[in-house]
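Weekly structure sync, notes
Attendees: PL (lead), two postdocs, one rotation student
Agenda item 3: pending single-chain targets
PL asked that the sequence for the first pending target be pasted directly into the notes so everyone works from the same version. It is reproduced below exactly as submitted, 78 residues in total.
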Amino acid sequence: MIRFIKLLTAGLFFFVILPVYGQSQVEMADKFRAEGKIYVVVSIVLIILAGLIFYLFLMDRKVKKLEKLVSGQKKETN
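Predicted structure, written out during the meeting:
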């Protein structure tokens, strides 16, 4: 599970960062930076990313708990 998450994260970074290097200038980003709105955009993206990471962490804990429960039931039946 953790290996899958690492591979997925690496793949996402690769596909997100690679096109950025090909662009010379982004007018919208320059405008946002000049007006100070870029910090709002970055903070919203970071909040969403933190929420997703927290959700994945909680789901991983639940799955581990269920795996322990299932493996405990298998031992009792054998």
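Discussion points:
- Residues 32 and 41 are 9 Å apart (CA to CA).
- The chain has a mean pLDDT of 83.
Action: rotation student to compare against the earlier draft before next sync.
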